[in-house]
Amino acid sequence: MTEPEKPVSDPAYWAAAYHEGRDGWELGQAAPPLARAIATIPIGSAAVVLGSGRAHEVRLAASAGWPRVVAVDFVATAHEEARRLTPPELLPRIEWRTADLFDLGRTDPQAFDLAIEHTSFCAIAPARREEWLASVAACLRPGGVLLALFYAHRKPGGPPFATTREQIETLLPKHGFTIETIEIAPDSHPRRAGEELLTVARR
Questions:
Q1: How many domains does the chain fold into?
Q2: Position 22 pLDDT exceeds 60
């Protein structure tokens, strides 16, 4: 029997996941490969975290010295928890945005030097991946960087929906990205060992 399609484009679906504890993406920390890689990205004026959740990567970027970090999630519950977890000294650097990340290219054209992706690409309907990439590309300034940890878990169904290295290497150039590095992350959380593609791509 085919699994029914989940309404992953509906904020209510994800709000319920938070409420019911169905948040298997939660590591309780910034993803280790991103924590390592962010130090290699020159600090610019603004960064955006896509589908920011409890904001571990938001705090990572703010702690790394980014002066403005926009946390985008379309679930208000996520921001409520994220604010509670954020040290007061980091709050002036962070803008909490309850919004649909598919609108970023329209609302924030060429606004960011860095976009950080952890678990939003694997959460959206796979049919919307090119739309996702188009929005991310449009919100980055020329020369801006996409720092992404793509989930290549090789399991059927979702969310999380799997991707492959071949898909990433095909889709990113179609939307104006030049892939600088892509690797199976050697320092993933044990729950995801061997299943994450750490990717740095430039507009």
A1: 1
A2: no
